[in-house]
Design goal:
The complex is a heterodimer of chains A (287) and B (197).
Chain A: H1 3-8, H2 10-15, H3 20-32, H4 34-51, H5 64-82, H6 88-93, H7 104-112, E1 119-121, E2 139-142, E3 146-151, E4 157-163, E5 168-173, E6 178-183, E7 190-196, E8 203-207, E9 219-221, H8 222-233, E10 237-240, E11 247-249, H9 259-266, E12 273-278, E13 281-286
Chain B: H1 8-16, H2 20-42, H3 45-62, H4 72-104, H5 121-126, H6 129-140, H7 143-154, H8 159-166, H9 170-189, H10 192-195
Helix pairs in contact in B: 1-2, 2-3, 2-4, 3-4, 4-8, 7-9, 8-9
The chains are: A alpha+beta (287), B mainly alpha (197).
């Protein structure tokens, strides 16, 4: 055993975990090498000194937890500030609110639940400082993995997200900003149903899959159309329409046409439904 | 009512579901230990607080990715260690830029104040010089070696826990820890008269 090799075994020998054979060689080397022996004694003294580390009294700042919470809040705020500017004004102009409820949503879900794939995940930051915006309207923004949801309630609300691989999830909001992300790791598009307690209309959110596919169908519900468009162009689609489950016929997609044009062409037979594109998200709503 | 008595698993699940109070409970439950670890690494209360705050921000942002394959504390140690290393890296690069700037100026001599990471004179009188020198030696260890020393000897973590926290094989942890101890021994040897080793 060399001098350098023996030094590699200092810890193991001291802890008694060295193999019997190696321990014998080590001890023999130690006896034969006074320099090594001196170094090992110093090493053991160092280990004794190190034991004192565990008994060290460390005073924790009284405001530590406040500082941590403030840092977390700031991080959430910074994220929100750098997020794409809201399209809530545009959404409000669509008059999405105040529409009559449609009893067919539940039926739609039960029929299509088995077809959806994807994942609903809460996007890290959930609730931050008490909400001062007082805009009780869900907002959407595109994220790297799907689509982000932001809700600024003034009061408690129950939010239900159905769809994807996670099935159904229920959330309770207070008067704080609620953030959520819908993602989809599957090849094909996934649809999610987002219901906010107190709102009369449910929103359908379609997140594109990992693969791009040509539009194959020629007719179906708006949600089905949205899934085809999402997979063709790789963009998320938000639908809030009384006619979400009504049949629409869509034309053959020609080269060069984009998601908005495809949606507008396809929806022309449905009175009162229109499409618009904003910040990389296709919106389909009622006039 | 405080929720810090609840299991980590439950708190994490609730935090993942959007419950901020559950996350706050995780902070309340683990901040002291995280701070003590950070302080042992930095020997500076302000920097330790920064490391812990930044660490919990990272935990918050990544809580969705936590699958419970290791203990929450193991994950927390990993994040705190990375925060410490990142903050140190930033400081070093900032210091390098600052020194470079000073060198190119033509305004005469520049006095550089290099922070002494050791104890203040007041602290030194309160504790034995031997302890202070020992802490200084630990503080002078390279960051990676220091984190291992602190984990093993300060936090009383096992080799397995350190391996999980640093994402290293156990054999590597053992050999690096041995090297760290040898480095520390060499440093202390320089003060042999005082330490009488």
């Amino acid at each position: 055993m060399t001098y350098e090799k023996a030094k590699e075994y200092f810890s193991a020998y001291s802890e008694g975990t060295l193999d019997a054979g190696l321990a014998q060689s080590f001890e023999a080397k130690l006896k034969a090498d006074s320099k090594l022996q001196a170094e090992y004694e110093q090493f053991e003294a160092t280990l004794k000194e190190l034991e004192s580390l565990q008994f060290e009294q460390i005073e924790v700042p009284f405001d530590l937890n406040d500082r941590i919470s403030a840092a977390v809040d700031k991080s959430i705020y910074d994220k929100k500030r750098t997020a794409q500017p809201g399209w809530s004004g545009w959404l409000r102009n669509l008059a999405f609110t105040g529409l009559a409820a449609s009893a067919v949503f539940g039926a739609y879900w039960s029929i299509n639940n088995s077809q959806v794939s994807g994942r609903s995940s809460v996007a890290g930051p959930i609730s931050v400082a008490p909400n001062s915006k007082a805009v009780e309207q869900m907002e959407y923004s595109r994220t790297d993995n799907g689509i982000g949801l932001e809700f600024n309630p003034v009061d408690k609300h129950a939010i239900t997200v159905k769809g994807g691989a996670t099935g159904e999830e229920k959330f309770e909001t207070s008067n704080q900003v609620w953030l959520h992300e819908l993602t989809n790791d599957q090849p094909g598009a996934a649809s999610f149903e987002v219901t906010v307690e107190g709102e009369e209309l449910t929103t359908f959110v379609v997140v594109p899959g990992k693969e791009r596919n040509e539009i194959e169908g020629t007719q179906g519900s708006i949600v089905l159309l949205a899934k085809e468009i999402a997979d063709k162009y790789g963009i998320p689609v938000v639908i809030k329409s009384k006619q979400v489950l009504f049949e629409a016929a869509w034309p053959t997609v020609t080269a060069g046409s984009d998601a908005l044009k495809t949606a507008q062409d396809s929806l022309q037979n449905l009175t009162g439904v229109f499409a618009d594109m904003r910040e990389g998200i296709l919106y389909i709503g009622d006039n | 009512m405080s929720e810090s008595h609840l299991d980590d698993e439950l708190l994490i699940r609730r935090a993942q579901g959007g419950d901020r109070s559950a996350f706050d409970a995780l902070i309340a439950k683990h901040s002291t230990r995280a701070y003590q670890y950070a302080f042992r690494l930095t020997r500076n209360p302000e920097e330790a607080s920064d490391v812990v705050a930044e660490g919990f921000v990272r935990v918050y942002n990544a809580i969705q990715n936590f699958k419970g394959q290791s203990a929450f504390t193991t994950w927390l140690y990993r994040i705190m260690t990375n925060c410490f290393l990142d903050i140190r890296k930033k400081e070093k690069s900032r210091q390098a830029i600052s020194i470079e700037s000073a060198l190119v100026t033509s305004e005469g001599d520049v006095e550089m104040q290099i922070e002494d990471e050791g104890a203040s004179p007041h602290e030194a009188t309160e504790r034995s010089e031997r302890e202070v020198r020992f802490e200084k030696a630990v503080a002078k260890l390279p960051e990676y070696q220091r984190s291992m020393i602190v984990m093993y000897h300060g936090e009383m973590m096992s080799y397995e826990e350190i391996a999980a926290a640093l994402d290293l094989p156990i054999g590597t942890v053992k050999s690096r820890l041995n090297r760290a101890r040898l480095t520390l021994r060499d440093m202390l040897q320089k003060d042999a008269e005082l330490f009488q080793i």
